[in-house]
Structure prediction request, 515 residues.
Amino acid sequence: MLIRKPADIRSSEITPKKVYQTRREFIQAAGAVAGAAIGVEVLTKGAAVLHAVQPAVHGRKWPNVKPNPTYSNTNGELKNTWEQITTYNNYYEFGIDKDQPAELARNFKTDGWMVEVSGECAKKGRYSLDDILKGETIEERVYRHRCVEAWSMVIPWNGIPLANFIRRMEPTSKAQYVKFTTANDLKQMPGLRSDVLDWPYVEGLRMDEAMHPLTILVVGLYGEMLPNQDGAPIRLAVPWKYGFKHVKSINKIEFVEKQPLNTWQRQAPREYGFYANVNPEVDHPRWSQATERRIGEFFKRKTLMFNGYGDQVASMYSKLDLKKNF
Amino acid sequence: MWAAYYGHLSANPLSDVTNETGVWALRFICLTLLLTPLRRVSGWNVLARFRRMMGLYAFFYGMLHFMTYVILDRFAGLVDFPDGYLSWTTARNLGQSIAGDIYMRPFITVGFTAFVLMIPLAMTSTTGWIRRMGGKKWALLHRLVYLTAIAGVVHYWWLVKADISRPQTYAAIVAILLGARVYYRYART
Prediction:
């Protein structure tokens, strides 16, 4: 048997010079190809790395944010990063692509923001952010966030219970629903030029949903003031409902007698309802709601009834046919 | 691939890959359909040589798009893997999941149709097959690409949430390209 002597060639001659010189890029590209091909391992590892990264901050912090562990139980599911939460947004007022709001909302001015409160309540008027937050403790609530498009995140919101604000507005007995409206500022929101939705964006909650302790008015994220692309300066979080109920950049709150017609229901009543409770058993007419992809993960997760908040909220819907009232 | 290379993927790269491969398949179908009318208008017969290449690119991206769907959507969406990732149980569940999806969701049905119709075209794309089938028969078979184009656009249209502007653009392009064929067929005879 012939034993070959190792060839006496320098490694630089074996590796094509171009590849050799751009080894770093080559490794990155190889990684990308391997990731696309094998998927599983590379991407799950990548996700673990992403989770370990500290969120980038823009430096406008809320003082004295108090964690509220009672309402932050995500069963050990890891929080999504600042990067993920602030670059992957559905905010059609700033474009229909997920990465557009981060870009197009960059110069959105929210100074002197006013929220107009009207309808069936004693304290109608215009309220600044300071008025709304006066005497309140901003809490951190780590919530699951489930989009109707079947992706999800875990987000550390900073906000106050909506119930506190509603009580201060002294709604009358006629106030059965709360209607929220997003700002409609054509000069600042380029997405409004497209008629993809019927502007302004409107959402609503039944009074008991609005008063529920899980429902919060959000003013921050990761202890920072809310970034524009996430609905600055003030938005809603209702964690057992699909993302589109979480109306952003609220400038009107009305107490009304009748159920408001929310924007997505107006857009496609067969596909989006008023309640929009997260429900793995009721599919969207075009896709399944049984599973979801957590941003940063490869394998999908089973979607939980009421997004995992059933213990706290299911009793509100005991008389409701959830298949009809999707 | 380009985006993966340069790190332009979003926080949901899996969904980006699915969308990009699909859109590229549709773009190549449009390019394939563009060559013949363009040759008629310009008289550059050299364009005919690129038809096979463009068609195969379309098939390649259609295949990537389908595989992406199978792996990232169906496989990753199985959630339960009772006998591990690589097992007969997983394979069977995956098959059921794909078949069920094709049966239940119209936008998947048309997308799958568009892809399947390209398979015989890719298989018979060689010169040998043209000879074996005879030019007329071959040309007839390859008109299936018209159906692929229409099904591809419908697939795109039915999957978007509200922003139909992009599917509309592709619908217009395909309509013009197919319209050109109708025009040449009837206006010239």
Remarks:
- The radius of gyration of chain A is 24 Å.
